[in-house]
Amino acid sequence: MRKSITPNQIKQNNKNLIYLYILNHPGVSQQDIAYDLRLSRPTVTTNLNELESVGMITKSGQLDTELVGRKANAYSAVPDYRVSIGVDIHSKELKLITVNLLGEYSERVVHSINYKNTDSYRKKVCEIVNGYIAGQGLKSEQILGIGIAMPGLVSPDGSEITYGKILDCTGLSIDGFSKYLNYPCRFFHDSESAAVSELWVSPELKDAMYIQIGIHLGAAMIMNRKIMSGMHGHNATIEHIFMGNNNKRCYCGRIGCAETLCALPSLCGEEPVHEFFGRLRSGDKNASKQFDNYLKDLAKIINSISLMYDKDFIIGGFIAPYLQESDMDKLHKYVQELNPFDDEGRFIFISRMPKHNITIGAALPYITEFLNRDEIE
Ligand SMILES: [Zn+2]
Description:
Layout: H1 7-24, E1 28-29, H2 30-37, H3 41-53, E2 57-64, E3 71-77, E4 83-89, E5 93-100, E6 109-112, H4 119-135, E7 143-150, E8 153-154, E9 161-163, H5 175-178, E10 185-189, H6 190-201, E11 208-213, E12 217-223, E13 226-227, H7 259-262, H8 264-268, H9 273-281, H10 285-308, E14 312-316, H11 325-338, E15 348-350, H12 357-371
Parallel strand pairs: 4-7, 7-10, 11-14, 14-15
Antiparallel strand pairs: 1-3, 2-3, 4-5, 5-6, 8-9, 11-12, 12-13
Helix pairs in contact: 1-3, 2-3, 6-12, 9-10, 10-11
Bound molecules: zinc ion.
């Protein structure tokens, strides 16, 4: 039997089309909307009135027309009609950001608070989140949801931490937070949130291995613009690939994991990253040697992965803002020395979104889901 489309579905579809068109073309005229979407003027007028009455779009000035003396209204979407909140939980900090429907973000707020696997900690975090929302002047109906990024693996529905050895929070349920927050809430694995941000700012990106280098090492495998989660939810956990017995113990309990070679502490120890790179860029020989050894270790892991996933590699995380193209050239050379192929062109790139990527990436899924709804409203 053929499926049929109801008049209501057509009506909703037109409304969505017009809304998304305006969102992507701020300051557009009614005439251009009708022409570009091949819709009748009355259809566009009706929808513009509806969208404006609920506050999704607004008149944003006047445009000249071909008719002398006649002006047309310009329409733009209201980016804050809906927003989402990104929360990034660390062992010593809590970071918050608001993201609107255009992916624009507020100034990020950081609170010093030590992680504890207790109800009073979670209550305190939620008090901070609620205070933050009130402080931003946001109304509850504006908020699509709160994405909480954690350094741990997360169940596919975002309701539970399935592996959380870094914060010792394996088994933690989202209810522990959502009972104090009057909004939809979901956990996200922090590396995946970082990759989500990268996808948002890179519309042409299709397949890549995203490597997140911070206090810990992490990764996300991007395939056809989707992040692969795997059968057991631990796809791309490259941090636990065995790299040889180096007598360094990983937080997972095993020795010689990539985490012990390529996370930031193995590059700069206790030294703050900016100080390390300050020394490096001013020509300090020790820093130069340390960095070179680090790049060689990183090349080993990139080479191993590239033999199985022959795609671009993106280096993100705390390290990214300090990296230069010449570092990537060197890293690429070290990778090439390890494999038998003479591939043309560089395939290792610095993240395009080195700042706040995890916090923003925790908020973005609510935005993309909203914009992909059958009924955007
Ligand atoms: Zn490990």
